[in-house]
Every structure is written in C-alpha cells, then in structure tokens.
Automatic annotation (TrEMBL):
Pfam families: Lipocalin_2 (PF08212). The keyword Membrane does not apply. This is Apolipoprotein D. One of its GO terms (cellular component) is cytoplasm. InterPro entries: ApolipopD, Calycin, Lipocalin_ApoD, Lipocln_cytosolic_FA-bd_dom. Residues 46-189 form the Lipocalin/cytosolic fatty-acid binding domain. GO terms for biological process: brain development; lipid metabolic process; lipid transport; response to reactive oxygen species; tissue regeneration.
C-alpha cells in the first residue's frame, strides 16, 4: 500500500513538473529569489490597458502576438482580462480573471485568479509589480516546486503597443538589478492587432 501511495505521488510530481516545463523556459534550482517590489503601489492608477512589449521565453506563448492585459476596478476587486492572438489561427483569445492583493501592507504583491468553471475550482499565481510609473510596468511571477526548483516569469508592459529600444534597455536594467536574467528576453509583436 505504501508503495502505491509513493508511486502515485511520484507520478503526480513528474506530471506537474512536465506541465510546468511546458509553460516556462526559465527553470532554476532552489527557492524563488527575493525581489524588490514597487513601493507605494496604487491599484487604482494601474487601471486600463497594458500592452506586453517583452517577456522571458514561455513556450506556450512563443507563437503569439498582440498580447495585452486590462485591469478594471469592480467593487472590491479588479477584473483582469488577458488577450492574445496565436499567429497560426489569427483569432483573438481572451482569458478573464480577478486580480487582488492578499496583503494590505504589500499592495504590489498581487495574485491573479482564473476560474476553471468546468472543474469548479480556481487557479492562482503571483503577479508582482517590480516597477511601474503607471506608463510602463514590470511584472514578475515565480513558482516553487518542493523548494528544489523554481520557475520564473517576467513581463514588460507599456500603455502603448511600442516602446523605444532605449526605454526597453532602461526597463531591462531594473530586472538585472533584481538579479533576473534578461539574456533570453523576447519582444512581443504588436503589429496587425485587432
């Protein structure tokens, strides 16, 4: 009986790791690193459209363009709408979720929660604000597995679909100062969008 339980746990662990590897190309040993968050972050100033201009490589989104998010205030929470276009299908896909800060004293530590209606559950992940002047933003997320591995994600957003190379370098420097590797950063295509 013990063997069956351990074997089942091992299979679940391997499957979880395989799913995570599918979604992230940035796998590191150890726990998630400490990062500095945006001080004095104000959710209400973050409301509106944000265009993804760059990110680390994420296999699932490698063939996408027109990636955009929208934050909208709705009573005590924020609606989070993410949209993108898979280049092969040329059709916009929209994901709706909720954004909230579980810690009142750390408003930049947001969580995004996606309802999985068919499974009658929700999935959530950290979505932390490393930097914003409310025209540009750097978001970061990290997921740990057994404190042995972690998967890091970052996104650079702008209120406009395009930013200059100089501004992108400045924003990349913010990531570098947080010990986040930008050497594999990819630009997000924002042409031919709906």
């Amino acid at each position: 009986m013990i063997f069956k339980v351990h074997k089942c746990m091992f299979i679940i662990l391997v499957n979880s790791l395989l799913v995570s590897i599918t979604f992230s190309d940035v796998i590191r040993l150890g726990k998630c690193p400490f990062v500095r968050l945006q001080r004095g972050f104000k959710h209400i100033l973050f409301v509106g459209d944000w265009y993804e201009v760059a990110r680390n490589p994420i296999m699932l989104f490698s063939n996408t363009k027109c990636n955009k998010v929208n934050f909208k205030k709705d009573e005590d929470k924020y609606n989070f709408r993410s949209s993108l276009v898979f280049k092969n299908f040329k059709k916009e896909i929209i994901f709706d979720a909720f954004a909230y800060s579980p810690y009142a004293n750390e408003p930049a530590k947001m969580k995004i929660e996606y309802p999985l209606t068919l499974l009658k559950t929700n999935i959530s992940f950290p979505y932390w604000v490393l930097y914003t002047d409310y025209d540009y933003a750097i978001m970061w997320s990290c997921a740990e597995y057994l404190k042995i591995l972690h998967f890091e994600y970052f996104w650079i957003f702008s209120r406009k679909p395009y930013i200059s190379e100089e501004k992108l370098r400045d924003l990349s420097d913010v990531l570098t100062l947080s010990n986040i590797d930008t050497s594999f950063m990819v630009r997000t295509e924002q042409t031919g969008c709906m």
